[in-house]
Amino acid sequence: MMRNPVFLAPTDDAGTGKPKSYSLNAAMIDDAQAGQAQHYADHFGQPGYDDPTCMYISQRYDGYTDENQETWTTLFDRQMQYLADNASNVWLSGAKAINLRRDHIPDLSEINSRLGPLTGWASRAVPGYVPAQGFFACIGRREFPTTIVIRPKDSIDYLPEPDIFHDIFGHVPLHADPVFADFLQTYGQAALTTNDESHTERLARLFWFTVEFGLIREDGRLKIYGSGLISSPGESRHALESPEVDRRPFDLDRVCDTAFEIDHYQPILYVLESFEQLRDAMNTYAQRLLKMADETPLSNTSS
Length: 303
Ligand SMILES: [Fe+2]
Prior knowledge:
Blueprint: H1 31-42, H2 66-86, H3 89-97, H4 108-119, E1 122-126, H5 132-139, E2 143-147, H6 164-171, H7 178-192, H8 197-212, E3 215-218, E4 221-224, H9 227-230, H10 233-241, E5 246-249, H11 252-256, E6 268-272, H12 275-295, H13 298-301
Parallel strand pairs: 1-2, 3-6, 5-6
Antiparallel strand pairs: 3-4
Helix pairs in contact: 5-7, 7-12
The protein binds fe (ii) ion (FE2).
């Protein structure tokens, strides 16, 4: 199975589920529980490993230190002012709807109590990397695998992998929007219908250029909505302001044909006209994948 960088969160090699990059503090994670969940995630899709809920862990909220909380508030404050003018209205409304707060790291149960009634989505804590098929299975049931560690204070500007700021602040506000919520579930369900690596790669590109790094035109202006832009002061400004960026109109097939690189600011971005455009394009793509799956059963194509 392809290890997809889009869905990559770090884990150590010993299989404890404890992320390598966050060794300063992972006390919000129970080691034994994380080890079991990570083992399950690593085997997801194999016989006996088909229940996404077995990849989930608890968020031991008391494990966050005062320094962790300060890191959250610093990240929140330095980005929110920019986002007020430059983020999609849909993200801003979603942030309000889930009561995203500056003064504390989100408690997933509190977020979910607001999110559930709006769209049926939920954020579920995971210990680390969730391989593509497991990730698709989660979002196909409106559950978002969520990293709960937070970057160390001394690495506040450098984020090699997702943390709770990226996953909750960056991603989850859009899950409160019914149109985006439908798109994301359809994405997961469609992705589950294929084991074909070329389609998995195309779907990863679609995820990258929309969910992670998407731009949208609102009120005659470009706004950001992708989580990688929302959660990054440097990249959000670069995306909107740099003359170096090639901002292209969204076209699903063109997006899926565009390779991406993960280790520097994105030179190519795609601009939606609306989230309905994204949802409708995804529905069309899902129909195509379903038709292919009917013609070529998964059992004949699995690798
Ligand atoms: Fe992300």
